[in-house]
Hints:
By secondary structure, the chain is mainly α. Helices cover 73% and strands 0% of the residues. It contains eight helices and no strands. It has helices spanning 2-5, 8-32, 40-66, 78-91, 97-113, 123-135, 138-141, 146-158. It is rod-shaped and about 95 Å long. The two termini are 28 Å apart. The mean pLDDT is 86.
Amino acid sequence: SSSQFGVIPALHFSTLIYSILSAGVLIYTWVSVDFGELPTLHWLFQVVILGVYGFIFFLMLIAAKSAQIEIPIGVESKESLIDVIRTLSLSLPEESIVMKEELSRFESTIKYSVPHISIIKNIDRYKELTNKLMSLTADDLLRENSSQIIKKLTILAKTC
């Protein structure tokens, strides 16, 4: 998964440190016994180093797994909702300045008032907001009651 993929550089670095430390201990011990048989203390130290490295490795994998975010199936991200709002704003004619300002305020509401998908309290309202926004067209925003549509969507966004 992507969260475990993000841990790979740290794991590679810790493996490098472990390898350098292990090789350093091996060379120091081997030189100190005049290139003879390695003492039991050296092997014990190598096992301790491996245990510490394994523990750190395991903790990194647990941290990556706990950082994983559960996103409900069929739910659009806030960024995709903002993209839809920007697309609607760009598709409006130049003379509809008021509607563009309302869409800009609605975009700010989505960006700053709607929590992250993983901590939304009312997922059904968020899905309703997503469905209504995705089905909205520029022609809908050129009608007389378009301000009411945006106000209803804003209220829906604030209650997610």
